[in-house]
Design goal:
Layout: E1 12-13, H1 14-21, H2 27-40, H3 42-48, E2 59-60, H4 62-72
Antiparallel strand pairs: 1-2
Length: 75
């Protein structure tokens, strides 16, 4: 995704979405930070993993991205 493109709600690789939220950090650090934000927000955490998706999946589904944006705002 280019910097000048608007954010689109769609499925994202977890590392890419984390980096969109924390562009100044290396991907691993950005992922750790996003995981911490999710873990600390019980409503978001419960909603993210109430479906078929698992915590160890490599991608956030469109449904999960919608929930993340709803709770954290757009990156």
């Amino acid at each position: 995704m280019k910097e000048d493109e608007p954010f689109r709600v769609r499925a994202y690789h977890k590392g890419i979405l984390a980096h969109l939220y924390n562009p100044g950090l290396p991907v691993e650090s950005a992922m750790r930070k996003l995981r911490n934000w999710i873990r600390k927000n019980e409503d978001l955490y419960d909603a993210l993993y109430s479906g078929r998706e698992g915590k160890n999946d490599h991608y956030f589904t469109r449904r999960q991205v919608e929930l993340i944006v709803e709770h954290l705002g757009e990156p």
